[in-house]
Amino acid sequence: MSFIVSSLLLASLISGGYGRPVELRQAAPEVFKLPIPAEGPGPTFDATATRVATNAQIRNAASPDLCFDVSDFRAGDFRFNLVPLALKPCNPSVDGQKFDLITKGAHNNNQDGTKTLIVSSQQFTCVDRRGNKNDRTRPGLFACGGRAVGDGETTDDQQFFFNLNGTATTGFTLVKDSKNQGVGAGNACMTLNKDGFVSNTPCSPPNFTPEQTWIIGDAPAGSPPPTVPDASTSVGSTSQPASTTATTLPRAHQEHLKSLYCPRLEMMVPGPTFDASATRAATAAHIRNAGSPNLCFDVSDFRAGDFRFNLVPIALKTCDAATDGQKFDLITKGAHNNVQDGSRTIIVSSQQFTCVDRRSNIKDRTRPGLFACATIAGGIGFPLVQNSVNNGVGPGNQCLTLDADGFLRNTPCSPPNFSPEQTWIVGDLGNGVVSATPPQASPVKPSPVASSPSSLEPTQSSCQGTTVTATSTVTVTVTSQPQATAAPSSSAATSSPTSTSSSTLVAAPSPTTKPDVFVLPKPEEGPGPTFDNTATRAAKSVQIRSAASDTCFDVSNFKAGDFRFNLVPVALKKCDATVDGQKFDLITKGAHNDVADGSRTLIVSSQQFTCVDRRSNINDRTRPGLFACGGRAAGDGGTTADQQYFFNKAGDLGKGIGFPLVRDAVNNGVGPGNKCLTLKADGFLSNEPCSPPNFSPEQTWIVG
């Protein structure tokens, strides 16, 4: 069967309507609801805490009508972390202006009340010294304890020296990198910045400038309402009991409105990219459901995902040939699909270059959505490769299925027998299917920008307002064994819009047994993983071998982690002294291990400078994997018990030792009730019950 697929590769990124004044009107601010935690406990109210202030406004002494404000919670990520800390006109009815000061609690282990957390009474997240999503050197909200999923303990990134001195005013001196216990020159304090947000600037406590002085407690009742700005750049008046207020629409929000699909490129490392090396069985094709042939896969609502446009739900919407969010490539081999025989495909958005992942719907993590392509094979029915039975044939498998709510779901199936809801028609909108937007009678002439080789990817200039339009026509032949098509070439974009390029086979790269060469990721935020030259090492660049088998810790598959190479699973593979991914350091004291007596160790990859963390396996977050030392994704954490293991200094490393977990340990890691790193039958590490110093062979590790 042959068919023609027309693809609008880059279409009208900026709407012509943005030449008009921007005016948004809303009846009331959005009501905040705690996100449903997919991993970890999420943000919770600390009922054990000691509070010196509850539900209080925090005003600035230099501008006493301005209060801390985190109402714009959607400016953060999908967990509502990284919300910028703004200063806005005080309003006692705004929940986003209410804060608790916690001097002792689940996330503040300080005993004498001299250090405080500043916690949003609305969101239960903490002011973190560099938790502003737009500028990671400035304060914003982050999960208390410093772990994104809310299961951290205490971090000095969120502690501030605190002394009211019998008044209602104080400065907030940062505990992190403080001098002389936060007294005198060389310290940094939270400061009102001219742009209306909080910044960390030099200070000399207890002498604070007015911009560094904060008044704890509600503003006087007589505080004037904010000034009504010009209508062309304002939010319409908001109806409230007995008053009407209006606030200026920030420039950042105006720019946000302009972008139809302009991800913040600096946040995408390596980010979604077009795979020019891929073998495609279909290009820019619609995927329709056999049970409802007028409904197509649709990911147009990309802003429903997180700030990187991952986790976008896959909806089924009325097929429309003009909708780029309904165009997909089927890639049977490429940078993110290493299966050689074409038996597995990934489904890639032709618009966003991200992959259909079996559990990446931001609203329901058991259902499919878009996620950055990375070692995912979603393998016409689409049986899932993950947890498949009998190589995806027969009962016990799961398939992508049209659900009654209009979104995809993974449901039981018995390939090759698929229900109509599990059967998908890949191609154009022929066979009598009516498109919501009829195709144009004449194609659009490509612009000069579109004819350049780089026009296959969104560019920075596109995000600055350039309108780019290009069309191409690709002939795709689908047989019982799909033929492969070459990636779109620059010549296709420069030719006449009505030209047709035939399918061609892409030569398979020569096989290689050499592992990928690891290169430290370029840190976008924080220092990233670094070699700790201050550390005390009990072992350096050694293998860690199981006493039960001739297998060693192995983290060579670093691309199995996230874009920072965090969350890399710790596998057990045949020991090979030439493999860098099998080399580790045992650090008993250092930048990320503050225990002075050498009784606890970190297990650090000598290759990647990241630490074995008790629950950082990207495929199963209850099991060990690599994570940035200190427990902060960007590498700027201190010490976390999630990465510490009890260490017997007198033990013989060559005869074998155990690694009892420090987190949730009983009796200082001795006797029953503890957990240890354990070799599991599936070839990966797990945390299993143990009774140190008695270890099973699977819990005994020979270091050296």
UniProtKB/TrEMBL annotation:
Signal peptide: 1-19
UniProt keyword Isomerase, yes or no: no
Keyword line: Signal
Gene3D superfamilies named among the record's database cross-references: 2.80.10.50
Keyword Signal: yes
Skewed-composition ranges (Low complexity): 237-248, 438-467, 481-513
Residues covered by region (Disordered): 220-250, 429-467, 481-532
Protein name: Uncharacterized protein
